[in-house]
Structure formats: structure tokens, C-alpha cells
Amino acid sequence: MHAPxxxxxxxxxxxxxxxxxxxxxYTAPIAKLLDPHVDLLLxxxxxxxxxxxxxxTLSVTLEMMIAHGAAVVRTSRHAFVAVDMxxxxxxxxxEQALASAKRIMIETGCGAVKxxxxxxxxxxxxRIAENGIPVIGHIGLMPQHVKEMGGFKIQGRDDxxxxxxxxxxIAVAEAGAAMIVIEGTVEPVARxxxxxxxxxxxxxxASAGCDGQILVIDDILGTFAAFQPRFxxxxxxxxxxxxxxAESYAEEVRARRFPAP
Length: 261
Hints:
This protein is an alpha/beta fold.
């Protein structure tokens, strides 16, 4: 009988080593299925769209993130677990950010928190990190800022954007972020950002040259039909199977074939 794997720690995530495999998870059953296969599970605020049916992530609350984060931590044993800090829980001040991060860590037992923002969020990242809480940064396309950015637009298309992204990446890393997610950024710029910082980068719609990759689990399973990012590869098409199962069940109930004698 094999001994259970020990949960991965931050020391596992190396710059320039074997690419880091990451997926989002929001529920206990899915977390248990994904856990043996990935290095990192992110309880992303994307749950606002794929679980709660919101149009964006802005309505997600700290309480939602804690509830789902605790479920993922409770049922996973191997993967490192990080939890997103939702919109409105950290932007006001470094003190607000620290208080929210502490609550997430205490109430979920996760390994790190993640927040969006570049140089402007460096003071908050530094405050959290100085208090012994690992932080993952997030630059490029930032879903919590989608209204300010004019929609889900690819970043780094011109020199000005590329230069700003480089300043953001360096500021976030120097503030103490343990890793940086780079989302929705053109490949050459994402590759340049990965080379510009000393911490691992995790790409989503960015570059294969990042130190790891993450996708939303519902995108790769084909269960979220409302929106499909161009960069998300479908590894399964479960939506038709789920619909077919529900249809068959309903037909059998109405025909009194289920439950059988």
C-alpha cells in the first residue's frame, strides 16, 4: 500500500524547472479528482461565473471564497492550494489586505492567497508577505479590473503596455510575491516578463515560456458554455453527457421505469 503523498510546499515551485501544472477547483468532489495530478489548485474567483452564474467576478465575496477554499483544502492531500482574494477585499489599504489574507488563511487552511494588480498593489503584497503569508501576484489581463480595461482584452500589444507590464512584474516580485500569474498577455511579452523576475510565473493565455500553466477546470472539461476563452483547450466535452444523463433520468421517471421494482 502506497503512503499518501505529502502536500506540496512553496519550495516545490522552482524557476525554470519542470513546468508547474495548475488548475482551478471550487468544490470538494472536483478537488479530490484533480489533486493527485496537479501541483497547484487555485480556488479562483472565476467561481463567480462558472459556479454562481455572474457575468463577471466582481460580485464574489470573501465569504464565498472562504467557503469554497475550505472545501478544496479539506478534500485535497497533495496539491498546494491557493485562494483568490476577491474584489473589494484588499484594494483599500495594506491593512485591509492583511486582514482579509489572515482571515482566508485561518478559515481555509490554504497555502497562499492571490491578488490582482501591479506596482500599485506592491505595498499590500509587501504587508501580507512580511506577516508570513505567501502571496501570488496576478498581472496582465485582470478580470477584477475588466470594466476599467474595457473588457477581456489581450495585454502587451504595444511598447507602452509591455513596459508597464515589466514594471508591474518587477514591483510585484520585489514586494515579496512567491509567484506571479500572467494572464491574457501576448506571447513575446509574457516570455520577457518571465525572464525579468526571479520568481516562477504561471501563464493563462500567455506564453509556453512561463514556468507553469493554469486553466479553469470548467473550460477544460467543457461544462461552461457561456464563454470559452480562445486559449483554453478542451480536454473533454462533459456538458452533452450531463444533459443526456438528466434527459434519460427524467424520461424514465415520467414513464415509471425508475425506480425499478
